[in-house]
Amino acid sequence: MDYETPQFFRVMQYAARAERDVVDMVSGNPDWEPPAALREGLAEYADGEVSDFQYPPSVGLTPLRDEIAERRGVDRSRVLVTNGAGEANHLAMTSALDRGEGDEVIMTDPVYPYYAGRANLLNAESTYVPVDETGQVDPAAVREATTDDTAAIVVNSPNNPTGAVYPPETIESLVEIAEDHDAVLVSDEVYDHFDYTGDFESALATDSDHVVATNSFSKSMAITGFRVGYAVFPDEDGPLGELVERARTRHMIQNVAGSRPAQYAVLRALRETPPEYYERSRERLRERIDRFTDALDAAGAEYTTPGGSFYVMARFDGFPGTMENVERLIDEAGVAGMPGEAFGESRADWLRFALVTPRVDEAAERLADYLG
């Protein structure tokens, strides 16, 4: 797949120009309230000293890195705070390729398109491994695709767009493959708070020197505009210790530092937000998934039931997931989704819908009326 132009923006811009009301099911922007402690942290920050309005440490606020390190069971030196998970993934992939041990990046199909876009940007050789009908990736297929020219294996669990949650044994096998080929497993875990199966386990649990785990508070705290993410790199004293130093340098050159007030507010929210906040978010999404898939049943559609994240893929007979059909849905049904072809070849006939809107029922009715 050649992903040169971000299709998300094309769909959103087309929907914005529509002459009718359109339900946005394109973007993964949560529609619920952030933690109360986050708002309180921002207000507190606004009344701070002048010195608090200056550059933070380039690698991130020390107390925030401490908090992340404690939660992830790693040393603080391995944690780099980034401008969202997007930068964390970019730094991880770039650092893996910079080692010079190979120029190939292995990804799944379907794939979150920005991984593919980064591989293109970095002039990497891209190899795609199709997942099965449930969205699960077969480690044996990944092993068959992996060579000594493989620099990185990029996986995302819980997954966007399929909603699959990879069980611990799959992650362990993928880590073993990375180790056997001296590659880096880049594990994007941004939807870790949205696991409905109980199967999710971070790749950090393998305690491997060949893992970079990336994450963000954008989804879990409903703050996509804050751009606070992080990456956990291998120990700098280990065999792949150069990864974290390269990432710190590149991060500083590109950004100098991240947003200090955003990091400050996230830190307070991390410390003070009870588990019930995250459970309410999961329950809200479970209910939306049930209602949306019930409506897809009524429309005679084939669909995925996500074990995690908040996306549903659907296939309607005679209505493949092309950009042209997405535009038809906007114009004629008033629902904006993503074309399956934007995620790769294996789900080109499908459409992807984000359930982060209170208008899920309305959207489902529109789809059923139009395509049922």
TrEMBL record:
Cofactor(s) the protein requires to work: pyridoxal 5'-phosphate
EC nos: 2.6.1.-
EC class of the enzyme, as a word: transferase
Family under the similarity heading: Belongs to the class-I pyridoxal-phosphate-dependent aminotransferase family.
Higher taxonomy: Archaea, Methanobacteriati, Methanobacteriota, Stenosarchaea group, Halobacteria
GO molecular function terms attached to this record: transaminase activity
Domain (Aminotransferase class I/classII large): residue spans on this chain: 21-366
CDD domains, per database record: AAT_like
Species the sequence originates in: Halosimplex aquaticum
Keyword Transferase assigned: yes
Assembly information from the UniProt record: Homodimer.
Keywords: Aminotransferase, Pyridoxal phosphate, Transferase
Name of the molecule in the record: Aminotransferase
InterPro entries: Aminotransferase_I/II_large (IPR004839), AspAT/PAT-like (IPR050596), NHTrfase_class1_PyrdxlP-BS (IPR004838), PyrdxlP-dep_Trfase (IPR015424), PyrdxlP-dep_Trfase_major (IPR015421)
